[in-house]
């Protein structure tokens, strides 16, 4: 646990990346696997993970993200895009996956499937979008922690125009919405923020034992 805490103390939201340094394919695959293994409500994972490497596309995205240099200078830009909406098919696809993966007859999962549908399908469209977006933030946490443990720098980013991102990445027609971004790579020696002391609320002010 001490190594994990040390890694969390080491990480920070990197403001300036070294554009000459790239995350290896092996390390990138590990980060993506950690993200894939993230918890989600009912295990449904109602989002997609996009890895944007194309320099031309990233140059188009940068103005839509307040011209932040991380968009183009980081080794990779990861976009977590939530589903705008869904129907019973979200549950049905998951149940089919469970049946195949665990060797369980689909009929034996019908009760659980019906329960999930009863809780999720009747939600309003706005509530569905909020719920799916929340799931991306669970994945975000895993991604940031996995990066820190492997001494890969990362910067979670909410400063962007989602509509422009959706248009450039062709997400709208896929029923997806840009929820949050993560730039990953290696910090530049010129990034002064890496030397700042980490500021967090004290445990006394943040944690309540009941």
UniProtKB/TrEMBL annotation:
* Highest taxon in the source lineage: Bacteria
* Names of required cofactors: FMN
Q: Which residue intervals define the domain Nitroreductase in the entry?
A: 9-186
Task: Quote the Pfam families the UniProt record gives.
Answer: Nitroreductase
User: Which UniProt key words apply to this protein?
Assistant: Flavoprotein, FMN, NADP, Oxidoreductase
Matching CDD domains: NfsB-like
In terms of Gene3D superfamilies, this protein maps to:
NADH Oxidase
**PANTHER family per UniProt:** NAD(P)H NITROREDUCTASE YDGI-RELATED, NITROREDUCTASE
The text of the family note is: Belongs to the nitroreductase family.
Name the record gives this protein? NAD(P)H-dependent oxidoreductase
Q: Please give the organism.
A: Sediminicola luteus
